Amino acid sequence: MTVIAERGNPARQLVTRLAGDEKHAPSAYSTLEVLWVLYDRVLRVTPATVDEPDRDRFLLSKGHGPAAYYAVLAATGFIPESWLDDLGGRNSRLGLHPDRTLIPGVEIGSGSLGHGLGLAVGTALGLRAQGFLDSHTYVLLGDAELDEGANHEAIAYAYAARLGGLTAIVIDNQSATHGWPGGIAGRFVGWSASVVDGYDHDAIAHALTSHDGSRPHVVVATVAPKGR
Amino acid sequence: MRETFVATTTALLDEDPRTALVLADISVDAFAPALRRHPDRVLNVGIREQLMAGVAGGLALTGLRPYVHSYAPFLVDRAYEQIKLDLGHQDVGAVLVSIGASYDASDVGYTHHSPGDVALLDTLEGWTVHVPGHRDEVPALLRAAARVDDRVYVRLSTQENRAPRPVSPRLQVVRRGPAGAPLVLAVGPMLDPVLAATADLGVTVAYTSTPRPLDTAGLRALATAEIVVVEPYLAGTTSRMAAAALADLPHRELHLGVRRAETRHYGSVADQARSHGLDPAGLRASITAFLG
Prior knowledge:
- Chain B: This is Transketolase.
- The complex is a heterodimer.
- By secondary structure, chain A is of the alpha/beta class.
- Chain A has helices at residues 11-14, 25-42, 67-75, 116-129, 150-160, 201-209, and strands at 57-60, 137-142, 166-172, 192-197, 217-222.
- Chain A has one domain: Thiamin diphosphate (ThDP)-binding fold, Pyr/PP domains (Rossmann fold, 3-Layer(aba) Sandwich).
- A five-stranded parallel sheet of chain A has the order 1-2-3-5-4, sandwiched between helices.
- The longest helix of chain A is centred in the first third of the chain and has 18 residues, at 25-42.
- The N and C termini of chain A lie close together (11 Å).
- By secondary structure, chain B is of the alpha/beta class.
- Chain B is 36% helix and 20% strand.
């Protein structure tokens, strides 16, 4: 990638405090800039409003490698920074996959791939049914996670339901075993789509906020290939 | 039972703005009036049962009370991991309502059978399971589920008893045998076949439409030296719980239900019941052989 993030990301320093999940480290770093932009510029949720029914929702579907997520939650005050020092410990609230019942501000427990998008569709439908039309649901997936067939049930139905309150973010670190010939955005038939540099904060923020809301939106954030 | 489910759930949708219904093409026509009145809360996701469960989890996360409905093999068997993670792991609830349980789809074959649904849910924590034995037992069970946020499974069947029984989480004695008589516990629609099979056997017959959580106190109160459990799903599904409940009581148990082997034939529900030994003659043969 050639574009360097222009704004600061205090979570970048915090993520180095997390140790113990080296297997998923590339996964964690691939999401770091998008997560920071989401929490810094986009999401209408704060530590004080995590229980408000009309808050925006963020669902981390790609629960593998949540170190970046935890770092961003710490940098934005959802969790104490001290929690970062005991990733996966017996008495830690932070596991190698997040658990919503243990961590303030975490909307879903995830780790098994292919669950977040269906939950996000249901969340967006629930918000719409209750008249929270300004509330938005964001869900983050990985390009390899799209191999799970359940995602494609959700993609098709979200468009059929015209779920304008839903945005999926796909972190594309080119780790899907057989790739996605023709591009990832093309798999989200009927959705509006943006493909952005996954390190460019302004481009990420623009992509996350510029859709017209008449149908679901997907943002494909391209980052360095896994392992490089 | 299916019609009763449709009527009750339609009424709940009208009465309670928390109620939502998620379908996967099954029974959509029956819910057409409800869909017209509540398009944001009656959701047909198409033939996408994994999504159906995931959507239910998402709805519950926003505070709604989702009812989720399809044929048992698709509702439970196919979407098992979504039930486990999108409901249980998220610590949210839903009301799963199945039709086509066990071999109700008798003439279409094993692809549409689900004898193992309750056993699958038994691997998970926190599920209440209702198996009504008569259509008139269904409304009270569905309405009770609307008042809580728990995980509830309502297993509807085309088989039913001639008359309804009171809806209760407790075991009910239907026919009392002499003191010390063996106990035969019938679950849901197994009551009438059990009553017919044991008419002259001198046993106590008890009934439940809520096998989960199992009324272990009631079971201990009724238990004698010989206990037979007759359930309309996989034979032995309740054996672990019964054994644990009665571990300190010397006794013998017989568990009758749908046999594990595929029957590999078509025919009526009665034909399937006969093949699994769950018709009155088959039950009588098994019970008398056990009692000696």
